[in-house]
TrEMBL record:
One of its GO terms (biological process) is proteolysis. The keyword Signal applies. Its main location: secreted. The lineage of its organism: Eukaryota, Metazoa, Ecdysozoa, Arthropoda, Hexapoda. GO terms for cellular component: extracellular region. Residues 1-23 form the signal peptide. Belongs to the peptidase S1 family. CLIP subfamily. PROSITE patterns: TRYPSIN_DOM. It comes from Anopheles merus. Gene3D superfamilies: Trypsin-like serine proteases. Pfam families: Methyltransf_FA, Trypsin. This is Peptidase S1 domain-containing protein. Residues 37-286 form the Peptidase S1 domain. The keyword Signal applies.
Amino acid sequence: MAGLVLLSLLLTSVLLTPQQISAQQCGQVQVLKQGLIFGGTASTPGMWPWHVAVFHRESIRRTSYKCGGTIINRDTVLTAYHCVVENQRPIAAGRLVVRAGLFDLDVGGPTVQENRVFDVISPPGASARTFDDDIAILKMQTQFTYDDYVQPVCIRSERQDIGQLVGTYGTVVGWGWTEQSTTSAELRQANIPVVSAEDCLASDRNLFSQVLTTKVYCAGSRNGTSSCNGDSGGGMFFRMGGYWFLRGLTSFSAVDAKQSGICDSHGYVGYTDVAKYLDWLREQGVRYEDPLQRPGTVSKPVPSDGSTALLRLAVDPKTKKFLQQHGGNVLLRVQLNGRRVETVRGCLQYDTVPGYNETLEYFATDNFRYVGRTHNSKYIRVGMVGPTDGIIRFGKSRFPYGESVSEICLSGWANQNSEVNRHTRTSNSEYVNTPLKIQLTPNVLSKTRPMMFRLEVFDNGNVLLTKDGEKRPFLEFNDNRQRLDLDYIAFTKWNHELFYYYDCPLDTDANGVDDTVLLKCSLA
Ligand SMILES: *[C@@H]1O[C@H](CO)[C@@H](O)[C@H](O)[C@H]1NC(C)=O
Ligand SMILES: *[C@@H]1O[C@H](CO)[C@@H](O)[C@H](O)[C@H]1NC(C)=O
């Protein structure tokens, strides 16, 4: 697993200039083509340069094809959420591989750009079971190089109601329909019309009444031609004003009763309506191009949250060499405004975090400078910054092998839920987790902003976690079976890097808290 390299740069020699968004044109086929064959099924290499294949890495050597996806900018691919889920849980970003410039699924070739995924972002409501919010952003570890075979698609920035497209033909491309069916080796395409929600419902009320929402639309010819030529996660494209635009993501269809797992090619297919996610894309700092946007209606660029911003750094040759060795897959922590400030005022920072199964470093809280006590509780202030899975253990001994500690995992499941376990470990490979609580805590962690909170353990066994500036705890639990002690505390991680802050001042209203930012950096 390619871990992220974390490093801090000295601020004085670092010059930051946001990378210019080049005037790249989206949605243009680059290869010379001898007439497009619409309604047919074959495509030719380079005809859909924004269409990519998403693979799951099963082992070091083996990847298996899962889905299609669409390039919308140099380091971003859109796909369906259900394509990045395995056994109902989000798959680790490090296990996803994207191949762009691919035509024959079984044959690589010089046009193929293979890229690892750095981060997967999905809406809080995304579900692979109900197909709600079936959309996911894949942030790439390195940028795509645009050429004849790799290009971004366009997206309309004005919200055009899907009703206006009913009866209009869009094009779906792909290597096959589902994960289970046999895929075609060569990329195929099909033209299919958008149908109204009423027609779609009427065609199969059982299926569509459950999954049709305002963020989904249906398309299909119902004559056996097209829907199975689509590809889960791949796009449905419309040509307007000489540009190709992405509108739908192939999401779900009825299953053919005669062939299990194969879609019913005589039914309609549901597509995630990308136009319903424009605000969400902007909130995630994802850029896309709309060459048809009228001047004057340019929406203000929403500042990216930093984690996905691409910054071009001017660095000394030694640092540059180091960064290049890591292929641009580097999370930089840079201090802002050239001031020497601590990331979180007054805290000790912990950035050499051992892995989940490694021997952890337990800190004695009685040695902390800042420990709070009330007549019936003890509390400390801690924090963390990272994408998901901030994991804290605490208990009553420095080396708690064979005895239980309390384990709080903040924002597992792709930053959606937090989980509390009674964790009993006997060795680096053996442990038992007894779940005490699972709670919905969507996006409680941030990759860029330290999440600071008070951890308070009461004599009666109640534990409260309360975020800075909030009165009500966001997580609360109790272990009825054993007393919980906050004598020793340790920090670990699952498969993403995090920083922790501990021994923090207990007063939280002082200013100057968050003066650093994590940046995904790209190398020139
Ligand atoms: C199905 O309909 C589409 C247009 O809706 C047409 O292009 C295609 O040729 C038809 N296929 C068959 C097998 O009739
Ligand atoms: C920790 O060990 C368990 C059991 O050996 C394993 O299933 C799990 O994947 C490991 N976790 C990490 C993050 O390596």
